[in-house]
Design brief:
By secondary structure, the protein is α/β, with parallel strands linked by helices. The chain has 7 helices and 5 strands. The protein has a 5-stranded parallel beta sheet with strand order 2-3-1-4-5, with helices on both faces. The N terminus is likely disordered.
């Protein structure tokens, strides 16, 4: 894998349902790098589905789209120091790491001393992203309050999909279009084999 010699840290960012975890786990299996999800460092209200507590459904149903997205960005800002501490711990101990999560906003990478060449932003076309979210949440079988919450979650995810890709391009991070999961597996394999070029 091609990294700055002093860094063996890979960051994989992107909105929900673009395949970050799939890519990170596949890459880890091929390289032995440890995988950490930013969701394990701090958790924002998650994906609405039949299995989540009712307060998560209420969270989405009672807030405007703008407020939901604003809270997400505040959450990411609050996580910034925790993520930096995690990255620096792995750099100092020379332990390889694949860190994945939407909280890995490319505009933060300079503060974290991460070479943009060590990071990837996964992006899915909007129709693909909507389909993935609806399929994973049983949208068509859900009651009306759940469907409203999922619609708001989709809106939030679509906004982040565009904003993270724009920030990645602005900050020199490769944007990888992943409209099918075969492409995600292919990316992970190429990263592991040193074949991926930006």
């Amino acid at each position: 894998m091609i990294f700055k010699e002093e860094q063996r840290i890979v960051l994989i960012t992107g909105t929900s349902h673009v395949g970050k975890t799939t890519c990170a786990v596949t890459l880890s299996e091929k390289t032995g790098f440890k995988v950490i999800s930013t969701d394990t460092l701090a958790r924002h209200p998650g994906r609405p589905s039949d299995s989540v507590p009712s307060f998560i459904i209420e969270y989405y149903n009672n807030l405007s789209d703008d407020t939901i997205h604003w809270f997400l960005k505040v959450h990411h800002e609050n996580m910034r120091a925790v993520i930096q501490e995690t990255i620096q711990r792995y750099i100092k101990t020379d332990q390889p790491l694949v860190l994945e999560g939407a909280a890995l906003r490319p505009e933060y990478f300079a503060d974290w001393n991460i070479d943009p060449a060590n990071a990837y932003c996964l992006y899915a076309e909007p129709a693909i992203l909507i389909g993935r979210i609806k399929a994973s949440t049983d949208y068509n079988k859900g009651a009306q309050p759940l469907r409203i919450a999922i619609d708001k979650f989709i809106e939030r995810s679509l906004r982040e999909n565009e904003l993270l890709a724009e920030s990645a391009e602005k900050n020199g991070v490769a944007v990888v279009v992943v409209n099918d999961f075969e492409k995600i597996s292919h990316l992970a394999t190429n990263l592991a084999n040193n074949n991926y070029t930006r």
